[in-house]
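Below sits my pick:
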Amino acid sequence: MNLLPALFVPALLMACAPRAATYTTIPVQDLRAAQEKGEYVLDVRTDAEYREGHVPGAALLPLADLGARMNEVPKDRPVYVICRSGNRSAQASAQLVRAGYTRVFNVDGGMNAWTSAGYPVSR
């Protein structure tokens, strides 16, 4: 009895299984290029943080409200998600992917990186 094929079946099944959808983490330079083209930018910080300064044109939807208001986020275009440092935006990106969004981009370093790069801020 040859057991060798039986050893390869689990590995083969894993290799053929569909991969879980995920988001992509991008640098602020990529966000800047997308923002200049009018792409959808989602800021998941608090109202107070947003008022202190945000990416021009960014929509505000605090992370705490995302689950209840996800229908406000367009599914038919890429979604660029930003927060202060990249932590909340990673959580929001994961939530969006679990909800079926397929083109989700988390901004590495968040607004800290955006302002450090000297990009414009709206208040």
